[in-house]
Amino acid sequence: MSTKEEVLEEVKTTTREQKENEIVLYNDDYNTFDHVIESLIYACEHTPEQAEQCSILVHYKGKCVVKTGTFDDLKPRCSKLLEEGLSAEIV
């Protein structure tokens, strides 16, 4: 008679999560819808439809997440929005 021995092996794995940051665009009383839309197309590479939807959300909700990604990708994009006179921050 032979016996089989089962061995359960515990394997430790570590995954490194990279934190996703967001650019939040805030409403203001100075910029037109057209300017906001053009700025989002320029800085965030939005389609015209995406940019229009974001501008409407910002107008009615007060803020909107307009881009998600790594900090290194978002920093120059947020700077472009700020240079265009929009109120935005990376969170």
UniProtKB/TrEMBL annotation:
<dbReference type="GO" id="GO:0030163">
    <property type="term" value="P:protein catabolic process"/>
</dbReference>
<dbReference type="InterPro" id="IPR014719">
    <property type="entry name" value="Ribosomal_bL12_C/ClpS-like"/>
</dbReference>
<keyword id="KW-0378">Hydrolase</keyword>
<keyword id="KW-0645">Protease</keyword>
<dbReference type="GO" id="GO:0006508">
    <property type="term" value="P:proteolysis"/>
</dbReference>
<protein>
    <submittedName>
        <fullName>ATP-dependent Clp protease adaptor protein ClpS</fullName>
    </submittedName>
</protein>
<dbReference type="InterPro" id="IPR003769">
    <property type="entry name" value="ClpS_core"/>
</dbReference>
<dbReference type="Pfam" id="PF02617">
    <property type="entry name" value="ClpS"/>
</dbReference>
<feature type="domain" description="Adaptor protein ClpS core">
    <location>
        <begin position="17"/>
        <end position="83"/>
    </location>
</feature>
<dbReference type="GO" id="GO:0008233">
    <property type="term" value="F:peptidase activity"/>
</dbReference>
